[in-house]
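[recover] target loaded
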């Protein structure tokens, strides 16, 4: 029996949405949307965008049989908003929730295939990174997601990987000059995740992985936030209640 799957990710500067059917070995992407959110928060429009996508696909929300959500790493607020939305849908519909690595989503962006080094700019001299091999069944992970300087990532790549792979993602621009010549020549700098990569990662997860525990699944940060590190400067003095 076919299952309707909704997938979403807002951990990069683009909101990616996809809805389609999975029926055994067959998977059909029915409707998709990728929104460029650079300079504005995705949270205010996410619910409306999901509603519009389901309407385009002709799928009422109650017909969904599964939800997949990018957990990060990436933008902290975006990851939390997407996960809260996905949890609400999964709990309300009583359907499974699959957590996705945003790096896995980025690896398959723009229909990329083959060996891929997915890169997101983590700032402060670091990248979020992981190597994958992307095939017709989605991104196969070769190492865990990590947050560290690019040099550490490159030093730990499988033998011969850099000579065959392409670097993909919004982190490419930030580290382009530091990439080996082979990787730099084939690099694909993108603003963020897209619906094609999201769908590929979601289908693979739904087929191969156990659903997440909706009560305990959390966003993946890989590093402390600026606020936690004490690097944020408040824009205004803290409010003090006159009653205490």
């Amino acid at each position: 029996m076919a299952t309707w799957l909704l997938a979403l990710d807002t951990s990069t500067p683009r909101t990616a949405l996809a809805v389609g059917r999975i029926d055994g070995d067959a998977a059909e992407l029915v409707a998709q949307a990728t929104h460029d959110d650079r300079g504005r928060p995705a949270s205010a429009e996410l619910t409306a965008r999901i509603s519009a996508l389901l309407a385009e696909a002709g799928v009422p929300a109650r017909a969904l049989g599964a939800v997949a959500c990018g957990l990060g790493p990436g933008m902290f607020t975006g990851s939390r908003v997407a996960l809260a939305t996905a949890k609400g849908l999964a709990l309300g519909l009583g359907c499974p929730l699959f957590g996705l690595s945003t790096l896995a989503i980025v690896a398959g962006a723009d229909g990329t295939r083959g060996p891929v080094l997915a890169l997101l700019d983590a700032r402060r001299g670091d990248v979020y990174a992981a190597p994958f091999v992307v095939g017709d069944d989605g991104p196969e992970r070769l190492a865990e997601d990590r947050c560290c300087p690019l040099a550490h990532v490159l030093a730990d790549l499988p033998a011969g990987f850099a000579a065959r792979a392409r670097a993909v993602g919004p982190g490419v621009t930030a580290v382009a000059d530091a990439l080996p010549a082979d990787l730099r020549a084939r690099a694909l700098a993108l603003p963020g995740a897209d619906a094609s990569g999201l769908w590929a990662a979601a289908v693979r997860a739904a087929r191969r992985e156990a659903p997440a525990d909706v009560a305990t699944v959390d966003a993946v940060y890989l590093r402390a936030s600026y606020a936690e590190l004490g690097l944020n400067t408040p824009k205004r003095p803290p409010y003090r209640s006159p009653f205490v």
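[recover] notes: The two ends are 60 Å apart (CA to CA).
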